[in-house]
Amino acid sequence: MELAELEIFRAVATEQSITRAARLLDRVQSNVTTRVKQLEEALGVALFQRDSKRMLLTPEGHRLLAYANQMLALAEEARQSVQGAAPSGRLRIGTMESAAANRLPMPLARFHAAWPGVEIEIRTGTTRALVDAVLDHRLDCAVVAHPGEGPARAADMDELAPGLEGTYLFTEHLQLVLPGSHPKARGPQDVALRRLAAFPKGCTYRQCAEDWLAQGTDDMRQRLAITEMPSYHAMLACVSAGTAMAILPRSLLALHRDAVDVQTVPVRAVHTYIVKRAGYATHACDAFVRELRDG
Questions:
Q1: What CA–CA distance (Å, rounded) separates 100 from 116?
Q2: How far out from the chain centre does Cα 295 lie?
Q3: Which of 80, 106, 140 is the last residue of a domain?
Q4: What 3-state DSSP class applies to 218?
C-alpha cells in the first residue's frame, strides 16, 4: 500500500463520494476511482458499498480506515520531525464549541502570525468525540473539559481515556441558565423546569448539569428530558423562550449580553486541557501548546 492510495481511500471514506473526494484532493475523478479499485484488488476485498448516491465503508473498509489514519498521521509526524526545528506541515486541532468561541481566537491568530507555513485544520465537537478522534489519529490535539473535580494540576488523563497526555489551560465556571421568569433558584431542589437544552452525549458540561440536577428532587431524576442542540445560540434561544434550561461557562455567557432575561445558578468549576496522544510530538503541535499555555 502506498501513502497516496491511503490518502485517497480516506478522503472517499470521509466524503462518502468519489466526486467530493476528487475535489478535496484536487485530482480528476477517474484517477480517484482507479486508485480505489487498485487498492481493493491488491487487498482482495471490497472496501466500499456502492449505490447511486453514496460510497459507504464495508466492515473491511472500516478496519482499514483505522489503520490508514494511524499510518498517515505517523507519516506526517515523521515528515515534520526531519524538516528542521521550525513548525511546519499540517496541524489538526479539535476544540469544544465554547473554547472555539471564547478562548482560541487570539491564540490562533498569534500562532498563525508566528508560523504562517503551518496549515491549520479546526474541528469542533464534544469532549468524548474529540478524545476519540485524537486516539484514532484523526486529530493531533484537542481542547477538552476534564470531568474530574480535583486540583487542576493533579488531574488524571485516564479519566478521559488511557493513552492521553494533557496540559492544563484554564478553568471554566459552569452556570445553569434559567428563564428570567423562573422562580428564584439557589440549588437543584429549586429548579422547576424538566427540560435541558444541551449538546449530544459526550459533552462534559452536559454531564455536569445532569449530575447536579440529579441532586434535587426524585421527580427531576425521573423526568429530566434532554433536547440536543447544535450551538449555544440555539440553547439560549430555548431559555429565552422559557422552554428549557441550559448550562454554559460563565465566560461564554458574558459574550451573550443580549441574553438579559435569564437568571443563573452556579454549578461547579471544570478544568480545561489540551490533550494529545502519549508520545506524540511535532514542532507545530508543541508550539501551539506553548501558545495556549503561555499566551
A1: 20
A2: 22
A3: 80
A4: helix
CATH of the domain at 184: 3.40.190.10
The answer to whether 126 touches 97, Cβ cutoff 8 Å, is no
Q: Give CA–CA dist 268/204, Å, rounded.
A: 12
- All residues at 6 or more sequence positions from 284 whose CB lies less than 8 Å from its CB, including other chains: 80, 87, 88, 89, 90, 91, 115, 118, 140
Looking at the whole model, is its pTM more than 0.90? no
Strands (E), 180-232: 195-198, 225-228
Residue type at 69 in one-letter notation: N
C-alpha cell at 20: 467530493
* pLDDT at residue 110, rounded to an integer: 94
Same domain, yes or no: 127 and 198 = no
Pairing of β 55-57 and β 48-50: antiparallel
Grid cell digits, residue 74: 505517523
Query: Which residue in this structure is represented by grid cell 472500516?
Result: 62
- CB contact at 8 A, 199 and 97: yes
132-185 pLDDT, tens digit per residue, is 999 988 999 999 999 998 888 767 888 899 999 999 999 999 999 999 999 999
Query: From CA 11, how far away is CA 99, in angstroms rounded?
Result: 28
- The answer to whether residues 138 and 281 belong to one domain is yes
Task: Assess contact for 35 and 62: CB atoms under 8 A.
Answer: no
C-alpha cell at 41: 484488488
Quote the cell numbers at residue 19: 466526486
Q: What's the chain's length in residues?
A: 295
Instruction: List, in sequence order, every residue forming a beta bridge with 145; answer none if it has no partner.
Output: 272
